[in-house]
Amino acid sequence: MTLLAELATPCLLVDLDRLETNIASMAGDARLKGVALRPHAKTHKSAQIARLQLDAGAAGLTLATVSEAEMFVGQGFTDIFIAYPLWVDAPKADRLRALLDTCTLAVGVDSAEGARALAAGLDADDRQRLTVLVEVDSGHHRTGVPPEEAGLLAEQATHAGLDVHGVFTFPGHSYSPGARQQVADQEAEALAAAAAALEDRGLRCPVRSGGSTPTAHSVGPGTMTEMRPGVYVFGDAQQLELGTIGPDRIALTCLATVVSHAGGNTVLDSGSKALGADRAPWASGYGRLLDHPDARISSLSEHHAVVTWPADAPRPEVGSRVRVVPNHVCNAVNLADTLVICRDGEVRERWPVTARGANT
Ligand SMILES: Cc1ncc(COP(=O)(O)O)c(C=O)c1O
Predict the structure, then answer these.
(1) With a 6 A CB cut-off, is 245 part of the ligand 1 pocket?
(2) Looking at residue 105, which CATH number applies to its domain?
(3) Residue with the nearest Cα to atom 7 of ligand 1?
(4) Are 118 and 132 in contact (CB under 8 A)?
(5) How many structural domains compose the chain?
(6) For residues 246 and 268, what is the distance between their CA atoms, to the nearest angstrom?
């Protein structure tokens, strides 16, 4: 049995009890609302965690890239939505065709050009097997068409030969303090308006897909048919600061060693190459320490995290270990080969980050 004290740092620890609680809680919430849960597996990129999510009742997986889909299909997962407006050239069309032979696949479109390129890469049979969802902008202003234009795009995609099943949106502007309920309402309105825009043109809209971790619990019954939160499995410092979760729901931390007290600072060996470098304008630092709520990572370089410590609190000694909560857990996982799975303070297993680097 390996003890936490024997692990080489930095490394990512997953608290299995908390992970299971988070998975069960979101699955239960979705069930109560009558909404299918299709968790975004880019957060964990792990076949084992995806299996736990499906065992708890998830309908399928959301993914961001074709290569993530290839990795998960290779692990036996069969129902996948790539929630992204793919640009499909000839090599990508070959990969989509191979996926269609082995799984039920949906992809996003948000332009007529993208829809035509997708259709051109597939033969009639493949086009029938592929589900297409039109991406709608509910206020995040990243990708997606305005809801009222979703009908026109769905019609253009249908004319190109694609099989449009509905609409989806990502309410990413929920990543702002105090915005959660308002954004959840905008998300619901955008999905309803987009569905109406399809129906006005005589097109069906059985799928209305939404969801982010901040808005997941604010989703009203009937506002969407499926939701796609991802970060909820682990939680992270952003979710703490947004008030989405409490510290008792943080299931992933980066175990780090205090390597220096130079200049009166506390410096850890978990730099941006372990934690990721995300810092939203409203974030109070580059990450937190799970057991020291008032400490903040105030600067990061590749292999160093400088922690600002409250003046009156005793600082950990050089050589001691702390558990860091990354700001954005998806980016920390994307940098790791392995998740160290712990229960009761002991290492139980090591799970590979199956879709590590699968970002194309
Ligand atoms: C399209 C899409 N759906 C769902 C999610 C999951 O949301 P969250 O990261 O808030 O869990 C994301 C996250 O980036 C996303 O881009």
Answers:
(1) no
(2) 3.20.20.10
(3) 212
(4) yes
(5) 2
(6) 24
